[in-house]
Amino acid sequence: MDNSTKIISWKGAMATMLLLLFLPISAQASNATEARALFNNTWRMFTSPNGCSLSYSVNIIGIYKTAGTIWVKGKRQHYQEKRYCGWSDPKHFYKVDLKKRSVDFHNPNSTKRDKYLSKFTFSPNDYNYSWANDKGTGIVITMEGKDGIKSSIKHAKLVLDRRTHYPIAIKVRVAFFWTTVKISHFYPGISNDNIFVYPAARYKNFKFTNHWPD
Question: pTM for the whole thing?
Answer without folding.
Answer: 0.79
